[in-house]
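Input record, target 12 of the design panel.
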């Protein structure tokens, strides 16, 4: 049985988001020694873009499968990634670290949910009335 292309894309992007979160954590520890700051910033921006793509793909998957919770989780991760980038740019070190840990945990959870509980794979598109409430 092959996976739906939207689901496969969601699983790949969610996993990439989690991996980028791990890379960011490692680079964050390296920043303590005063190195890797530019790389941490660039990869942080890339992480936000990947989280945004995951939210868009999760929306498309929600329309296909009706799995709203996966979309809400992905959208929330995009918002957290945006806040994380903003705090890093403002130099708010303590909240940046705390939210970074939360992002890492949420991104791993998103990847796990996308792989293990994606919703019905072969469902027809969900009617608009069902998405309203």
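The sequence produced for target 12 reads:
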């Amino acid at each position: 049985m092959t996976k739906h292309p939207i689901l496969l894309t969601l699983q790949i992007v969610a996993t990439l988001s989690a991996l980028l979160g791990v890379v960011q954590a490692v680079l964050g520890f390296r920043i303590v020694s005063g190195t890797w700051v530019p790389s941490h910033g660039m990869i942080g921006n890339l992480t936000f873009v990947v989280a945004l793509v995951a939210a868009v793909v999760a929306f498309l998957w929600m329309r296909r499968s009706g799995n709203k919770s996966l979309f809400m989780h992905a959208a929330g991760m995009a918002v957290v990634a945006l806040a994380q980038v903003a705090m890093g740019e403002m130099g708010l070190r303590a909240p940046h670290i705390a939210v970074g840990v939360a992002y890492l945990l949420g991104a791993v959870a998103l990847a796990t949910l996308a792989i293990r509980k994606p919703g019905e794979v072969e469902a027809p598109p969900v009617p608009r009335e069902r998405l309203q409430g």
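The chain has a mean pLDDT of 90.
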